[in-house]
Fold:
Amino acid sequence: MDLDPVRRIFAERHASGAAPRLAWGVLAGGELVGGEDVDTAYRIASCTKSFTAAALLLLRDRGLVDLDAPVTEWVPLLQLRPAGVPVPTLHHLLTMSGGLANDDPWADRQEAMSDEEFDSTCAGGVRLMWAPGTAFEYSNLGYALLGRAVQEAAGRRYHEFVTDELIRPLGLTSTAFAPPAGEVAIGCDKQGDDWVELPFSEPGAFSPIGGLFSTVSDLARWMQWFLGDDDGPLAPTSRQEMCLGVQPRAPEALAG
Structure:
Protein backbone atom coordinates (compact mmCIF):
# COMPACT_ATOMS: atom_id res chain seq x y z
CA MET A 1 0.00 0.00 0.00
CA ASP A 2 1.36 3.39 -1.02
CA LEU A 3 1.07 5.67 2.02
CA ASP A 4 2.98 8.57 0.48
CA PRO A 5 -0.20 10.54 -0.42
CA VAL A 6 -1.37 10.26 3.18
CA ARG A 7 2.02 11.34 4.50
CA ARG A 8 1.98 14.29 2.12
CA ILE A 9 -1.46 15.44 3.26
CA PHE A 10 -0.48 15.41 6.92
CA ALA A 11 2.92 16.99 6.25
CA GLU A 12 1.24 19.84 4.37
CA ARG A 13 -1.29 20.34 7.14
CA HIS A 14 1.42 20.40 9.79
CA ALA A 15 3.53 22.81 7.76
CA SER A 16 0.53 25.14 7.40
CA GLY A 17 0.50 25.69 11.16
CA ALA A 18 -3.00 24.21 11.54
CA ALA A 19 -1.87 22.21 14.59
CA PRO A 20 1.28 21.99 16.73
CA ARG A 21 1.52 18.23 16.15
CA LEU A 22 -0.43 15.50 14.36
CA ALA A 23 -0.94 11.77 14.60
CA TRP A 24 -2.41 9.46 12.00
CA GLY A 25 -2.65 5.81 11.08
CA VAL A 26 -3.95 3.60 8.31
CA LEU A 27 -5.76 0.38 9.15
CA ALA A 28 -5.93 -2.21 6.36
CA GLY A 29 -6.66 -5.91 6.50
CA GLY A 30 -7.20 -5.68 10.23
CA GLU A 31 -3.71 -4.28 10.86
CA LEU A 32 -2.15 -0.87 11.39
CA VAL A 33 -0.03 -0.67 8.25
CA GLY A 34 1.45 2.76 8.73
CA GLY A 35 1.24 5.98 10.63
CA GLU A 36 2.96 8.71 12.59
CA ASP A 37 3.13 9.38 16.33
CA VAL A 38 1.03 6.23 16.83
CA ASP A 39 1.98 5.63 20.46
CA THR A 40 1.47 9.17 21.78
CA ALA A 41 -1.78 9.65 23.69
CA TYR A 42 -4.09 12.42 22.51
CA ARG A 43 -7.47 13.57 23.76
CA ILE A 44 -9.71 11.75 21.29
CA ALA A 45 -12.72 14.01 21.86
CA SER A 46 -15.96 12.72 20.32
CA CYS A 47 -14.45 9.35 19.41
CA THR A 48 -15.30 8.71 23.07
CA LYS A 49 -18.95 8.52 22.03
CA SER A 50 -18.38 5.13 20.40
CA PHE A 51 -17.30 3.79 23.81
CA THR A 52 -20.39 5.34 25.43
CA ALA A 53 -22.68 3.74 22.86
CA ALA A 54 -20.94 0.36 23.22
CA ALA A 55 -21.32 0.54 27.01
CA LEU A 56 -25.05 1.18 26.69
CA LEU A 57 -25.54 -1.71 24.26
CA LEU A 58 -23.55 -3.93 26.58
CA LEU A 59 -26.02 -3.11 29.36
CA ARG A 60 -28.90 -3.66 26.94
CA ASP A 61 -27.56 -7.10 26.05
CA ARG A 62 -27.42 -7.93 29.76
CA GLY A 63 -31.09 -7.04 30.13
CA LEU A 64 -30.40 -3.98 32.27
CA VAL A 65 -31.50 -1.29 29.81
CA ASP A 66 -34.34 -0.88 27.33
CA LEU A 67 -33.23 1.40 24.51
CA ASP A 68 -36.86 2.27 23.78
CA ALA A 69 -37.39 3.58 27.32
CA PRO A 70 -37.63 7.35 27.82
CA VAL A 71 -34.42 8.95 29.05
CA THR A 72 -36.30 10.27 32.10
CA GLU A 73 -36.44 6.69 33.36
CA TRP A 74 -32.73 7.08 34.07
CA VAL A 75 -32.52 10.87 34.54
CA PRO A 76 -35.77 11.63 36.39
CA LEU A 77 -34.79 15.24 37.16
CA LEU A 78 -34.64 16.11 33.45
CA GLN A 79 -37.21 18.80 32.61
CA LEU A 80 -38.04 19.21 28.93
CA ARG A 81 -39.51 22.25 27.20
CA PRO A 82 -41.99 23.17 25.82
CA ALA A 83 -44.47 21.62 28.21
CA GLY A 84 -45.95 18.32 27.08
CA VAL A 85 -43.19 17.59 24.57
CA PRO A 86 -42.57 13.89 23.83
CA VAL A 87 -39.67 12.48 25.82
CA PRO A 88 -36.76 11.16 23.73
CA THR A 89 -35.76 7.54 24.23
CA LEU A 90 -32.24 6.26 24.75
CA HIS A 91 -32.27 5.10 21.12
CA HIS A 92 -33.18 8.61 19.98
CA LEU A 93 -30.20 10.02 21.86
CA LEU A 94 -27.86 7.30 20.58
CA THR A 95 -28.76 8.19 16.99
CA MET A 96 -28.64 11.96 17.51
CA SER A 97 -32.34 12.25 16.81
CA GLY A 98 -33.51 13.18 20.31
CA GLY A 99 -34.64 16.67 19.30
CA LEU A 100 -31.91 18.46 21.28
CA ALA A 101 -30.15 21.46 19.76
CA ASN A 102 -26.53 21.39 18.66
CA ASP A 103 -24.57 22.58 21.68
CA ASP A 104 -21.02 23.08 20.36
CA PRO A 105 -18.82 24.56 21.72
CA TRP A 106 -20.60 24.96 25.10
CA ALA A 107 -20.58 21.25 25.92
CA ASP A 108 -16.89 20.87 25.12
CA ARG A 109 -16.12 23.03 28.17
CA GLN A 110 -18.30 21.05 30.58
CA GLU A 111 -16.40 17.77 31.02
CA ALA A 112 -15.53 18.32 34.68
CA MET A 113 -19.13 19.17 35.65
CA SER A 114 -20.07 17.26 38.81
CA ASP A 115 -23.06 14.94 39.00
CA GLU A 116 -24.76 17.48 41.27
CA GLU A 117 -24.21 20.30 38.77
CA PHE A 118 -25.44 18.05 35.99
CA ASP A 119 -28.62 17.31 37.96
CA SER A 120 -29.15 21.04 38.44
CA THR A 121 -28.66 21.70 34.72
CA CYS A 122 -31.20 19.00 33.83
CA ALA A 123 -33.70 20.22 36.39
CA GLY A 124 -33.37 23.79 35.11
CA GLY A 125 -35.01 22.83 31.83
CA VAL A 126 -33.77 21.64 28.45
CA ARG A 127 -35.50 22.81 25.31
CA LEU A 128 -36.22 20.44 22.43
CA MET A 129 -35.94 21.89 18.92
CA TRP A 130 -37.56 18.96 17.10
CA ALA A 131 -39.95 16.19 17.95
CA PRO A 132 -37.82 13.18 18.96
CA GLY A 133 -37.14 10.82 16.07
CA THR A 134 -37.88 13.32 13.32
CA ALA A 135 -34.54 14.98 12.62
CA PHE A 136 -30.82 14.48 13.01
CA GLU A 137 -29.03 17.12 15.06
CA TYR A 138 -25.71 16.57 16.79
CA SER A 139 -26.05 16.81 20.57
CA ASN A 140 -23.31 16.43 23.15
CA LEU A 141 -25.82 16.80 25.96
CA GLY A 142 -27.61 13.76 24.59
CA TYR A 143 -24.50 11.64 25.11
CA ALA A 144 -23.95 13.11 28.58
CA LEU A 145 -27.48 11.89 29.37
CA LEU A 146 -26.59 8.47 27.98
CA GLY A 147 -23.53 8.42 30.21
CA ARG A 148 -25.75 9.02 33.20
CA ALA A 149 -28.00 6.16 32.04
CA VAL A 150 -24.95 3.89 31.87
CA GLN A 151 -23.95 4.95 35.36
CA GLU A 152 -27.40 4.37 36.85
CA ALA A 153 -27.97 1.03 35.12
CA ALA A 154 -24.49 -0.27 35.96
CA GLY A 155 -24.61 0.89 39.57
CA ARG A 156 -21.13 2.42 39.35
CA ARG A 157 -19.46 5.43 37.80
CA TYR A 158 -19.65 5.66 34.04
CA HIS A 159 -15.86 5.98 33.86
CA GLU A 160 -15.35 2.79 35.88
CA PHE A 161 -17.83 0.77 33.83
CA VAL A 162 -16.28 1.74 30.48
CA THR A 163 -12.79 1.08 31.82
CA ASP A 164 -13.59 -2.27 33.45
CA GLU A 165 -15.94 -3.66 30.80
CA LEU A 166 -14.47 -2.36 27.53
CA ILE A 167 -11.03 -0.78 27.78
CA ARG A 168 -9.26 -3.36 29.96
CA PRO A 169 -10.78 -6.50 28.37
CA LEU A 170 -9.67 -5.27 24.96
CA GLY A 171 -6.14 -4.54 26.14
CA LEU A 172 -6.28 -0.84 25.35
CA THR A 173 -3.45 -0.02 27.72
CA SER A 174 -3.06 3.61 26.59
CA THR A 175 -6.75 4.51 26.70
CA ALA A 176 -8.08 6.20 29.82
CA PHE A 177 -10.11 9.11 31.21
CA ALA A 178 -6.93 10.60 32.68
CA PRO A 179 -3.58 11.07 30.94
CA PRO A 180 -2.14 7.53 30.59
CA ALA A 181 1.47 6.51 31.14
CA GLY A 182 3.85 7.40 28.36
CA GLU A 183 3.97 10.44 26.10
CA VAL A 184 0.83 12.58 26.08
CA ALA A 185 0.17 15.39 23.61
CA ILE A 186 -0.82 18.61 25.38
CA GLY A 187 -3.78 20.60 24.12
CA CYS A 188 -2.97 24.08 22.82
CA ASP A 189 -4.69 27.32 21.89
CA LYS A 190 -3.42 29.52 19.07
CA GLN A 191 -2.78 32.98 20.52
CA GLY A 192 -1.32 35.27 17.90
CA ASP A 193 1.56 33.37 16.33
CA ASP A 194 2.15 31.14 19.34
CA TRP A 195 0.66 27.88 20.60
CA VAL A 196 -0.14 28.13 24.31
CA GLU A 197 -0.53 24.90 26.28
CA LEU A 198 -3.81 24.43 28.14
CA PRO A 199 -4.53 22.30 31.23
CA PHE A 200 -6.58 19.14 30.84
CA SER A 201 -10.06 19.11 32.32
CA GLU A 202 -10.89 16.54 34.97
CA PRO A 203 -13.25 13.59 34.39
CA GLY A 204 -16.86 14.43 35.17
CA ALA A 205 -20.47 14.23 34.03
CA PHE A 206 -19.62 15.21 30.45
CA SER A 207 -16.80 12.69 30.00
CA PRO A 208 -19.13 10.46 27.93
CA ILE A 209 -19.07 13.05 25.13
CA GLY A 210 -15.30 13.27 24.71
CA GLY A 211 -13.22 12.60 27.80
CA LEU A 212 -10.97 9.73 26.71
CA PHE A 213 -7.27 9.82 25.92
CA SER A 214 -5.96 7.23 23.48
CA THR A 215 -3.30 6.50 20.89
CA VAL A 216 -3.50 5.69 17.20
CA SER A 217 -2.34 2.16 18.07
CA ASP A 218 -5.11 1.63 20.62
CA LEU A 219 -7.77 3.11 18.33
CA ALA A 220 -6.61 0.76 15.58
CA ARG A 221 -7.17 -2.16 17.96
CA TRP A 222 -10.60 -0.77 18.87
CA MET A 223 -11.55 -0.49 15.19
CA GLN A 224 -10.16 -3.93 14.36
CA TRP A 225 -12.29 -5.49 17.12
CA PHE A 226 -15.33 -3.49 16.06
CA LEU A 227 -15.13 -4.71 12.48
CA GLY A 228 -14.20 -8.29 13.34
CA ASP A 229 -16.25 -11.29 14.40
CA ASP A 230 -14.62 -12.04 17.76
CA ASP A 231 -17.04 -11.75 20.67
CA GLY A 232 -15.01 -9.71 23.13
CA PRO A 233 -17.08 -7.63 25.57
CA LEU A 234 -19.83 -6.87 23.04
CA ALA A 235 -21.31 -9.40 20.62
CA PRO A 236 -20.63 -8.90 16.88
CA THR A 237 -24.35 -8.44 16.20
CA SER A 238 -24.51 -5.52 18.62
CA ARG A 239 -21.41 -3.96 17.09
CA GLN A 240 -23.02 -4.28 13.66
CA GLU A 241 -26.13 -2.62 15.06
CA MET A 242 -24.00 0.37 16.05
CA CYS A 243 -22.81 0.71 12.45
CA LEU A 244 -26.28 0.88 10.89
CA GLY A 245 -27.28 4.14 9.26
CA VAL A 246 -30.31 5.98 10.58
CA GLN A 247 -32.49 8.09 8.31
CA PRO A 248 -34.83 10.28 10.39
CA ARG A 249 -38.01 11.62 8.90
CA ALA A 250 -38.35 15.24 7.81
CA PRO A 251 -38.15 17.64 10.79
CA GLU A 252 -41.26 18.76 12.60
CA ALA A 253 -40.58 21.96 14.51
CA LEU A 254 -41.92 22.26 18.04
CA ALA A 255 -44.08 25.22 18.95
CA GLY A 256 -44.07 27.03 22.27
